[in-house]
Amino acid sequence: MTENTDIVIIGAGFSGLYAVHKLRETYDLICFEAGDGVGGTWYWNRYPGARVDIESVEYSYGFDEELQQEWKWPEYFSAQPDLERYANHVADRFDLRKDIRLSTAVKSLHFDQESNRWHVHSANGDHVICKYIVAATGALSAPNMPDWPGRDKYQGEIYHTTQWPDEPLDLQDKRVGIIGTGSTSIQASPILAERSKHLTVFQRTPAFSMPSGNRPLDEEHEREWKENYSERRAQLLDTYGVSLIEYPTKAAQECTPEEQKAILEEGWQSKSAFQLMVAFTDVMTNRESNEVVCEFARGKIREIVKDPETAEKLCPTTYPIGAKRLCIDNGYFDMYNRDNVTLVDVKNAPITEFTETGLKTANAEYDLDVIVTATGFDALTGALTRIDVEGVDGLKLKEKWQDGPTSAFGFMVAGFPNLFMIHGPLSPGALAQMITAGEWQVDFVAGVIDDLEKDGYSRIDTTEEAEEGWAAEVNGAASQTVHHLAESWYNGKNIEGKKGGFMVYVGGFPRYRDLSETAVRNDYEGFLRS
Ligand code: NA7
Fold it and tell me: Quick check: CB of 434 below 6 Å from ligand 1?
């Protein structure tokens, strides 16, 4: 059966849920969600230790005053079950489920340029014709699973951290191997080490990490936030959506070594995630200042990890701090002082294959009962390129993006009319606070759709010139920072063969908003309406 609606929303994560709430005030819509529950990232990532790295009082919705007053977060940095509970609460409270089809992955999106309508097919056989697509598909939702040979012959259990089983795993007598040392592994490993007989960590690139300072949410702190929520939410949009950081006034070189040390020590103890990245005004823009912070963070690793050889292996030396996502941990480095944890370097001796009993690297074999792949994501583009998206004249999104993603303001791609991305490639999404920034993006898209309807247009597209202009803005901003000096999911270098440059806009959320809103105000400069 073919159905007709105004808007199809893809994804019932935090942005998708808000898009359902916002857009159905005016339009008919259907939201497709691949998972069998809502919450997106916080539905899929249920590995032990999964926890947000931004304080929950701000990493939460601001669109409804009663919701934000009534909801109580138990901790400063919420664990996955609390975030999933919150997503479910929001879905129920605003009666969103009636427009959401769970367990329904979108398989293809084809644009019919005669009727200016999208044809949406799901893996379950749904066929929906709609005018607009809102792709709230998530920046980190397409898992990366390196395809070493021999997976079929391995007799043990394998779990990607995004596909963790619902039932608790009994690991007590098991030898567990975890591949990867990004944020996910840094959160999961200390817990796996406690629960298993032995944990082997396979590390390709060591990570910078600082203690999260997680603790039960202080009532005074909560009250203070709740009393000032409206003002605070507005302020969040003037930063990256993270207000709890203390912003510095001095560059590293303006401080004596003693002052530097005192500031960094305070940052480390600050109980505020990411403080090291802004310890000085120029940490993210000046390589020398950045190195001061790197050396401080390495010093902490050497202090915590008792075995000097392991400590050295854990010290990042090949990229600036903050250039890859800074990790936040609860006892990660200390874990290496346990007798049942081994660190294996797979940079110099890479993993080559699965064996019947475990993993083989270029110089050794490891027997493992359970292998955990904490190998990250085909970030920013993967969720959409894994769908067959076809725009005008048979143009496939995957082909259009084969040398790297293009977009105007991270929300539209030339040749794919009426398709709007939330947190798309080249938007600030992945480096902003994603709930607040997502609410802003959904409101912005809703405004564009309202304008089109009001003015009687049936189609909006952007142009290649606009995409080139935006690419120049994105690259210009990235080149001012140290971000381009690391290989990470920000630039796709974590995926073998993935092309393209830096995929996140780091020119600041206020500038992003200003440029996007100015384009709209200037009669949709860079866009074609018909
Ligand atoms: P990340 O940060 O991309 O980390 C993935 C890890 O997996 C990282 O250490 C990778 O090493 C490692 N990896 C990936 N492929 C391989 C292969 N083939 N061999 C060995 N090691 C490999 O993903 P996370 O899930 O930890 O975090 C993603 C984001 O979620 C995070 O930034 C937060 O925003 C939340 P590499 O560093 O590429 O050498």
Answer: no
What is the pLDDT tens value at each position of the chain, 530 positions in all?
A: 899 999 999 999 999 999 999 999 999 999 999 999 999 999 999 999 999 988 999 999 999 999 999 999 999 999 999 999 999 999 999 999 999 999 999 999 999 999 999 999 999 999 999 999 999 999 999 999 988 999 999 999 999 999 999 888 999 999 999 999 999 999 999 999 999 999 999 999 999 999 988 999 999 999 999 999 988 888 888 776 566 667 788 999 999 999 999 999 999 987 676 788 889 999 999 999 999 999 999 999 999 999 999 999 999 999 999 999 999 999 999 999 999 999 999 999 999 999 999 999 999 999 999 999 999 999 999 999 999 999 999 999 999 999 999 999 999 999 999 999 999 999 998 888 899 999 999 999 999 999 999 999 999 999 999 999 999 999 999 999 998 899 999 989 998 889 888 899 999 889 999 999 999 999 999 999 99
Largest CA distance in the chain: 72
Q: Is the CB of 184 under 6 A from ligand 1?
A: yes
Residue whose CA is at the smallest distance from ligand 1 atom 23: 376
CA distances from 179 to 37, 343, 346, 375, 500 (A): 27, 10, 9, 6, 25
User: Among the atoms of ligand 1, which is closest to the Cα of residue 185?
Assistant: 26
Q: Beta strand pairing status for 351-354 and 358-361?
A: antiparallel
Pocket test residue of 183, 200, 203, 317 for ligand 1, highest count of atoms within 8 A of CB: 183
Q: How far apart are CA 9 and CA 247, in angstroms?
A: 37
Atom 2 (ligand 1) nearest CA: 182
Specify whether the CB–CB gap between 130 and 472 falls below 8 A. no
Reading phi first (left if > 0) and then psi (alpha if -120 to 50, else beta), residue 372 is in: beta
Ligand 1 atom 25 nearest Cα: 376
Please report, as a single letter, which amino acid is at residue 322.
Answer: G
376 in contact with ligand 1, CB cutoff 6 A: yes
**Residue nearest ligand 1's atom 17 by CA:** 146
How do beta strands 29-32 and 100-101 pair? Answer: parallel
Instruction: Report the nearest-CA residue for atom 3 of ligand 1.
Output: 376
The answer, yes or no, to whether any atom of ligand 1 lies below 6 A from the CB of 142, is no
List of residues 6+ apart from 107 with CB closer than 8 A:
121, 122, 123, 387, 388
Q: Work out which ligand 1 atom sits closest to the CA atom of 488.
A: 38
Alpha helix stretches (DSSP H) within 287-366: 287-304, 308-314, 332-335
